[in-house]
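Researcher: Sequence of Cell division protein FtsX follows. Predict its structure.
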Amino acid sequence: MRAQFVLSEIGVGLRRNLTMTFAVVVSVALSLALFGGSLLMSDQVSTMKGYWYDKVNVSVYLCNKSDAESDPNCAKGAVTEDQKKQIKTDLGKMSVVDSVTYESQDEAYKHYKEQFGDSPLAASLTPDQMQESYRIKLKDPEKYQVVATAFDGRDGVQSVQDQKGILDNLFKLLNGMNWAARAVMALMLVVALMLIVNTVRVSAFSRRRETGIMRLVGASGFYIQAPFIAEAAVAGLIGGTVACGFLVLARYFLIDHGLALADQLTLINFIGWDAVLTKLPLILATSLLMPALAAFFALRKYLKV
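Model: Prediction complete. Tokens:
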């Protein structure tokens, strides 16, 4: 009987404040969709870091004849065979180095043509203008500075370049976007909480006669509060379900189908469905508990029970 009463009161409360209930559902849905999106964005950045950092190379570019005429680092002339052998030997002795691959001028020219063949500059280049290099795979990408310190300014070495620096700039941008999404999410969450509190108070005010009678006949504080708390929880749960739907649809249409980013951006290792599905219970639990707790604390002061 009590459960039936509480359920009937929930329905009455939701119908009486339909506009505000709808506003609560929308604000909770948007804030939790942003919350879930920020969590997935963090997972995506971590996945990309693990994927790309594992492929990071440090390149030791060697001086050629053209560099000897124009680059101060190559003032002593083009790299000699003895210098190349010594550089390779020293690289092999370094504990941070996993593997070393030599790229000749012809190979460098071929790779350049493959990547930038449409560039006007490509037509004027010749293989002898390209630089020989050693491509170094590190055991730990963070140890780039060890190689740079050992070979920067060395005879025959034009420069030492680390691809990780380029990736770091990309990940800083992605992390910045993620924090911006979290800031918007926090703002939406505050708006949702304010709407929940106002909705509960309006509902309690419109039923003040019923609650007064219940208080007079000795109903417990929790029994009086239960319908209002349940109303907020139901509205929040609906919003959380909508947020989960947004995330599932976004993953489906943006990555797998529709835009099909997984097919178009094959160089990016996108997060899988497991990452999305593991976030949904957290979103649903948050959508249920957050409005319920907000309603509970609002009613303690408002109803004074």
